[in-house]
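WARN no homologs supplied; continuing
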Amino acid sequence: MSRNCAFKLDRARNYLDMSNVKLKVKAILLDLDGTIVDSRFAYLEAARIALQALGQPPLEPLMALQIPKRLEQNQSIDDLTGGDTAQFLEIYLKTFYRIAHLATKPIPNIHAALEALQQKAKLALVTMRNTPSTAIAKELQNFNLAQYFPHIVTARDTTKPKPSPEALMKALQALNVKTCDCLIAGDSVIDIKAGKAAGAKTAAVTSGLYSRLELATLHPDLILEDATKLPSFIE
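OK structure emitted
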């Protein structure tokens, strides 16, 4: 085993025992896709429809889920789209936003977790979706989750999306909380990078598209199975 791989495994093991970790915060900013809702089916369906429209064969699920991961990191998806990436993205994104409110579902037991978190800190939602906050609020209402998020910041509300800390700063300004008193929780390396850039505490969840090892490379303060485990780590 290479030294680099051994280092990654050691760090992952360190994240397995976090029973003594307690974070004191005044605000918690949560990501949407992969953190509050499971969006994998929406991603898969959007890829299927876009590829079908272009006369391309479907991708295996693991490969199709590489598309949103690469897009948020500004990486090429040409090898997954058959070469016509611009047309693919036009159909893919339009489809995703059209079906998201029907094809996503809440992470199991997230209602109880948000209720508990709301008693400990102010909450806000920060998402990379390029859609009005009113559309996100409507989706949350369908899941009976809107009451937990009086403030929603989307990519449309910023000039620079995550990993820029701009969206986080806008949410914290609305909550009137300093970055040092904030925790950002999300399923993506982009969430962790944005949180660190803002000077906030960070919690990564493995309920989305990224593995524990991928998230561990960013050294978040917490790595949890999903956001329902978060209340136990907040004072």
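Residues 207 and 226 are 5 Å apart (CA to CA).
OK
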